[in-house]
Amino acid sequence: MDSKLYPMKFMPLFKNVVWGGNRIKDLGFDYSPLPNCGELWALSSVEGRESVVANGFLEGNNLAEVLEIYMGELVGERNYEHFGNTFPVLVKLIDSADRLSVQVHPDDSLARERGMENGKTEMWYVMQADPGSEIIDGFATDVTPDEYQQALQLGKLEQIMHVEHPVAGDCFFIPAGRVHALGKGLMVAEIQQTSDCTYRIYDYNRPDANGRLRELHTAEALAALDFGAVTDGRSPYTRRNGATMPLQSNAHFTVNLVDIEKPVRKDLSQLDSFVAYLCVDGVGAVRALGHAEPLHAGECVLVPAVADEVELYADGHAQMLEISVDPDLWEGDSPSHNHDFDWLAEFVGTPSQCDCDHHHHHHDGCDCGCNH
């Protein structure tokens, strides 16, 4: 039996939540009998919500099991030494038919002080945005803890929040400590540290499916909050056809947007990391280690760290988020190493014809309120 690693696809996990919509169905996913799908978890090693491999000889094994067997071959040697058997990122799609709760996540030091493994820094890539849709990211002006608590008690929290009006293609970086919330009418791809810790501050006095108000964590949130003002939370980048565009690079994840018209070949030999490709538009394919996997919007392919190169294809035109974790950014081996990861991209041949590939899936109908 072949035991060599290959590009892996995963069965999506679907989460039904009070604010969820049905846009994810339009991407080609079937989450019946759930009434809606607020979240699709595309790549996860969160305990109890691990992604399950959907292709190849590892089919049926979850991500945590694969990581335990292949270790550095899967995620990169230094990444494995640093993160152990926890896959370092969690990749989701979020469909907000209604507003999400106003919330904040702790940073690593506070989370560990409180007995959790990691804090939660994240980013959003906006896939769809209705006209007039809003997000909250940070405070509109510097506030003191007392001013914040007074606004919360008087029901005037929204008046001190910084509000953005996103459009498709926008990218927002949400560092741990920044108060934030997605408004209604949005579908975003979320890349985050592997953590499911959320402190919910305000939920519009909205009942859940059972008529109960969801739990708030106002006391826990106080020490986590950054009270500084945010003027523009967008991560600026220049959109270019057929290019790799850096969106975000930090100690927790590096994310690029790859626009694919012709086939693209990338050299990964100097990167000591896995690379995950999340399709955010169109239909494409990822080829590495002698195997090719098609994917449509919302699907994710994980390329193991042992791959020295990868080829990306589009059926016409596609866009993918390219996600990795660069150990040089957290180890500090080279302070000047904050480059943009616009890796060598060589256009070859003509566009391949890829067919949409619909894999099995399973449902996650939990609405425990632990997240978002």
How are the secondary structure elements laid out?
Blueprint: E1 8-11, E2 13-15, H1 23-26, E3 39-43, E4 52-53, H2 63-70, H3 72-75, H4 77-83, E5 89-96, E6 102-104, H5 108-113, E7 122-129, E8 135-139, H6 145-153, E9 161-164, E10 171-174, E11 180-182, E12 186-193, E13 199-202, H7 218-222, E14 244-249, E15 254-260, E16 264-267, E17 275-288, E18 291-296, E19 300-303, E20 309-324, H8 327-331, E21 345-347, E22 362-364
Parallel strand pairs: 2-22
Antiparallel strand pairs: 1-4, 1-19, 2-3, 3-5, 5-12, 6-13, 7-10, 7-12, 8-9, 8-11, 14-15, 15-20, 16-20, 16-21, 17-18, 17-19, 17-20
Features:
ten-stranded antiparallel sheet, disordered C terminus, Jelly Rolls, 372 residues, 2 domains, seven-stranded mixed sheet, mainly beta
Helix and strand composition category? mainly beta
Q: How many helical elements?
A: 8
- Please describe the biggest sheet, giving its number of strands, its sense, and whether it closes into a barrel: 10 strands, antiparallel
Instruction: Give the class-level CATH name of the largest domain.
Output: Mainly Beta
pLDDT < 50 runs, ≥5 residues? 332-372
In CATH, what is the homologous superfamily of the largest domain?
Jelly Rolls
CATH topology category name of the largest domain: Jelly Rolls
Task: Average the pLDDT over all residues and give the rounded result.
Answer: 88
